[in-house]
Amino acid sequence: MALAEPAALMGVLAHELGHARGRHSTRMAVEGALLGATVAVITGDITSVLASAPVLLATLSFSRSHETEADCFALQTLARAGQSAEPLARLLQTIAGDATSGAASVLSSHPSTPARVQLIRDPAAAKRQCS
Ligand SMILES: [Zn+2]
């Protein structure tokens, strides 16, 4: 909050509302359980350690898609309110630290900051990812 200008906080709140509206925490639990069951059926008696790896990777993928959904909701909400999403993009860049790439991005629960900033700043990217 100390880093954010007030206009960026509106974007953060809109993003979080997107998670609530999409029921992402409930969906994560259900999707994780379904994936775990599916992997257990497919793999038979493989150890739970081995079985958990694809579940973890898929869960992280779900998490990244939920973040994109929440960003899309924030973009649409801010636009409807006549507010710019640019302060949110600047805040993301401010707090990003090291950008993830390559193998690290596979293990990330969030899309990369450059991808999120592009979604916010590029209407064509938003149209592609938010429809
Ligand atoms: Zn989020």
Task: Describe the fold and architecture.
The model has no long low-confidence stretch (mean pLDDT 80). The chain has one domain (8-130). Helix 1 (6-21) packs across helix 3 and helix 4 runs antiparallel to helix 6 (113-121). It is mainly alpha-helical and 131 residues long. It is elongated and about 55 Å long. The protein contains seven helices and no strands. Helices cover 76% and strands 0% of the residues. The protein starts with 5 loop residues before the first helix and ends with a helix. The longest helix is centred in the middle third of the chain and has 33 residues, at 48-80. It has helices spanning 6-21, 24-43, 48-80, 86-95, 103-106, 113-121, 123-130. The structure holds zinc ion. The site of zinc ion has 4 residues, from helix 1 and helix 3.
